[in-house]
Design a protein that fits this description.
Blueprint (H helix, E strand, L loop, with lengths): L11 H8 L5 H17 L5 H28 L15 H4 L4 H26 L3 H16 L11 H22 L6 H6 L1 H17 L1 H6 L5 H5 L1 H26 L7 H10 L1 H5 L8 H29 L2
Helix pairs in contact: 2-3, 2-7, 2-15, 3-5, 3-6, 3-7, 5-6, 6-7, 7-9, 9-12, 9-15, 12-15
């Protein structure tokens, strides 16, 4: 009689670990940025649409996290002998049936699509294009014969989709086609870079494990030392972009860049020495997520300040 693993039922704890709420800033910040741009640039804002977009974005991020865990497990990338963070490997350490994890991911994605269809009826069919691109990216990021996460394009695709196209889709909901411009996409560049750096952090810590799994991520191609320095200068570039965009487009709020520079400069030495190892993975990810939240939070405040005090 073939051996059948003894799986444990889905619990609130394992569900939370699949959804990975610590990564939700990658889903929340794009909607906050879109709302700030809508209010300041187009003088429009809908509280209901904002709340619905926020929920849908979190569901989409949760689907990405869950399906990524599922595909990494079934492909043998994540195993108990090579993944030591018990809070970031729910299928392994909660002895979960991987099929259950896949169903959870599809439920997250399905709920996001249902809410998205409602927005399509409200905003128009062009929103379907954004929805299709988002759903396809969620699946093909970890699934399919050639997953995006196995390629050097993972950071770029994640950054552009979550940091660029998601705010553009939200702006379309708020304002229609007038919001779809290259200028608006340019305003999203700091967030695009930020979200790319979140994945870059994860992949830099996982170089050894990803190499063993046959992945060809960007940090594997660059090497550990070069990747660590790119991470450091990536956040410096993001602050520089925010300063540039704020000065030319949202000047009334430009003064807020100085508290950000002081705060960032205080931690420069510690950030330069950040370790990107499997054992330090949790700290590296927490630091990256905190920086992402603080830096982009300041950027959003700059935009809002310009909207309130521009006249």
């Amino acid at each position: 009689m073939p051996y059948e693993p003894l799986y444990k039922p889905l619990t609130a704890k394992s569900l939370k670990e699949l959804a990975a709420p610590q990564t939700w800033p990658a889903g929340i910040l794009p909607i906050l940025l879109a709302a700030a741009l809508s209010y300041t640039v187009y003088q429009t804002f809908s509280l209901f649409s904002f709340a619905l977009l926020l929920v849908l974005s979190i569901l989409l991020q949760s689907a990405v996290n869950t399906l990524n865990d599922y595909f990494d497990f079934v492909k043998g990338t994540d195993r108990e002998d090579n993944f030591f963070d018990k809070k970031d490997a729910s299928i392994i350490y909660n002895h979960m049936n991987p099929k259950t994890a896949f169903k959870v991911g599809m439920v997250f994605l399905g709920l996001a699509l249902i809410g998205g269809l409602y927005l399509v009826f409200q905003a128009g069919w062009p929103l379907l294009v954004f929805g299709f691109l988002g759903a396809a990216t969620v699946y093909f990021y970890s699934g399919g014969p050639y997953p995006i996460s196995y390629l050097p394009l993972g950071e770029a695709v994640s950054g552009v989709m979550m940091g660029g196209l998601l705010p553009m889709a939200a702006l379309y909901v708020f304002n229609g086609a007038q919001a779809l411009s290259w200028a608006t996409l340019y305003d999203c560049l700091p967030l695009i870079l930020s979200i790319g750096l979140i994945l870059f952090t994860n992949n830099t810590c996982d170089i050894a494990r990803d190499t063993e799994a046959g992945r060809h991520t960007l940090p594997i191609l660059l090497g550990h030392k070069v990747s660590a320095k790119i991470w450091f200068f990536g956040f410096l570039l993001e602050v520089a972009l925010i300063a540039h965009i704020s000065f030319y487009s949202f000047r009334p709020g430009f003064w807020l860049i100085f508290p950000l520079l002081i705060c960032y400069g205080f931690y420069l030495k510690r950030l330069w020495r950040m370790e990107f190892t499997p054992g330090n993975r949790r700290q590296a990810m927490q630091t990256t997520l905190l920086l992402t939240t603080v830096v982009n939070g300041c950027y959003i405040l700059i935009i809002l300040w310009a909207g309130v005090f521009s006249g």
